[in-house]
Design brief:
- The complex is a heterodimer of chains A (114) and B (118).
- With 114 residues, chain A is mostly beta strands.
- Helices cover 0% and strands 58% of the residues of chain A.
- Chain A has strands spanning 4-7, 10-14, 19-25, 30-38, 45-51, 56-59, 62-67, 72-77, 86-94, 102-104, 108-113.
- In chain A, strand 9 (86-94) and strand 10 (102-104) form a beta hairpin.
- By secondary structure, chain B is mainly β.
- Chain B contains no helices and eleven strands.
- In chain B, strands 2, 4, 5, 6, 9, 10 and 11 form a seven-stranded mixed β-sheet that branches. A four-stranded antiparallel β-sheet of chain B has the order 1-3-8-7, with no helix packed on it.
- Chain B is globular, with a radius of gyration of 14 Å.
- The termini of chain B are far apart.
- The chains are: A mainly beta (114), B mainly beta (118).
- At the A-B interface, strand 4 and strand 5 of A face strand 9 and strand 10 of B.
Chain lengths: 114, 118
């Protein structure tokens, strides 16, 4: 069964600190993995995309890693800001579907305190 | 800049009413999707469309229906709303449309409609 598991479920950090969010998946055949940021009451917005051959991808203060062998990904946030408070969702796409089927994790709810 | 729009953003309605949630995109995408999301839970696909006059049910059973008469428009209808329909509904699109925002089948999401049925 294709699944995406994220940890931790929620995280509270102080402004300026770093944090790392984890994602484990069993989706096969694998196409790509995205990290989305979803602000409260809004739709998800893509932060990074990683394909099978990519190990690291950065977008400003966000750095995603992918280990396709162990089927694990992480999202590292550097020097957190209050605006980083949101849900971060790991989304995996399978290669075998013309639909472009996506498998969603439940997200990690990040709260940044001043 | 919002290329995919959903209205209304919030809707509170009584049981038994008929409602239509609107979704429009200006990217010329052929594929469109409706997801349902409850607090703290993952998004569940309830409907999708490959193009005009194409609609399919998703993974999560839903009493709602959809239509795709125009490429840019993908409305979702509930004939008789019930409290169990209370949720957030997200519309998304992807495909070989115009512009550069079509990389690797990225799905672009609208802001969502928060539906509460009393």
């Amino acid at each position: 069964k294709n699944q995406v598991e994220q940890s931790p479920q929620s995280l509270i950090i102080l402004e300026g600190k770093n944090c790392t969010l984890q994602c484990n998946y069993t989706v096969s055949p694998f196409s790509n993995l995205r990290w989305y940021k979803q602000d409260t009451g809004r739709g998800p917005v893509s932060l990074t995309i990683m394909t099978f051959s990519e190990n690291t991808k950065s977008n400003g203060r966000y750095t995603a890693t992918l280990d396709a062998d162990t089927k694990q990904s992480s999202l590292h946030i550097t020097a957190s800001q209050l605006s980083d408070s949101a849900s971060y969702i790991c989304v995996v796409s399978d290669r075998g579907s013309t639909l472009g089927r996506l498998y969603f994790g439940r997200g990690t709810q990040l709260t940044v305190w001043p | 800049e919002a290329d995919i729009y959903q209205t209304p953003r919030y809707l509170v309605i009584g049981t038994g009413k008929k409602i239509t949630l609107e979704c429009s995109q200006t990217m010329g995408h052929d594929k469109m999707y409706w997801y349902q999301q409850d607090p703290g839970m993952e998004l569940h696909l309830i409907h999708y469309s490959y193009g005009v006059n194409s609609t399919e049910k998703g993974d999560l059973s839903s009493e709602s229906t959809v239509s795709r008469i125009r490429t840019e428009h993908f409305p979702l209808t509930l004939e008789s709303a019930r409290p169990s329909h209370t949720s957030q509904y997200l519309c998304a699109s992807t495909g070989w449309g115009q512009g550069v925002r079509d990389y690797n089948n990225e799905q672009f999401f609208g802001p969502g409609t928060r539906l509460t049925v009393l």
